[in-house]
């Protein structure tokens, strides 16, 4: 199981000091968080994609490429790649390039985002959101898997004899998660291709999240990719920790109360009861996160949001130290002990490359041998 952090890259005033960092400071802070995440033993750093204030991550490949040069192990992911408003040809090129630079430590989470005005900014209509997600991703898959592509669709100009360069590293495209919190069509899309499904459930109750994940699992099995409990699932979460839970609540409350995304709404207590947000001791975070398995089954990736709402970088780095030293080692051990042998681990470039090599080896075996193998 993979554990990591994701960032939305918001530039938010610190309510305890009244100070707002500059865009340059926020960008450099995101890099520092990624480097720290690797240092404390996390598996994944993921960043969103936004094209509007108060967010800064408008160019994920630039950011992740810079981070790739300063790290050696951590998987670099997006927590949203806007499949609706980005050209799939450019996605194919940009992320294959990043894949080479990062020695395969790259995957993507496709999503439609949560900012309606982004569609006309990039020449699209929000009413076509689902159709764009479906068509653009179908083309992206072909661009990564076929050396020469002829294609015609509804939302972009046709392609004739087109080759996307560079080709994916080792002829293995980056693994794709489809991220959605409310659209069953996206869960269906993930299941159809046998890709991962990531439910970033940071604002949603268990009942809704379970409904979406159960749909994805059923349809994953329907399309013949494996049993429902073998589907590749990821979850979001939010945590804030101190040794003493009362201290954690006291310190985090002003950030929660004034956060642009949920401030001035439900109380901190109500929000922690209804969503995955956990504010307390490391042990409380461990217990709450382990409980996700009871509701959603065995899953492969857990990402935490830790750097939002104006929290200073020093505090975020302290949180990462706690997460890496006190929380994730316990979670890793407990989840692994409970995971049945037939439930797959989270995909990596190495595992996908090995699977592709096995498939190519089978293709070279004569039909007679394959038939004999099947009788054993």
Automatic annotation (TrEMBL):
It holds the Pfam family Bac_luciferase. Residues 1-295 form the Luciferase-like domain. Keywords: Monooxygenase, Oxidoreductase. InterPro entries: Bact_Lucif_Oxidored, LLM_FMN-dep_put, Luciferase-like_dom, Luciferase-like_sf. The keyword Manganese does not apply. CDD domains: Flavin_utilizing_monoxygenases. PANTHER family: BLR5498 PROTEIN (PTHR30137:SF8), LUCIFERASE-LIKE MONOOXYGENASE (PTHR30137). This is FMN-dependent luciferase-like monooxygenase.
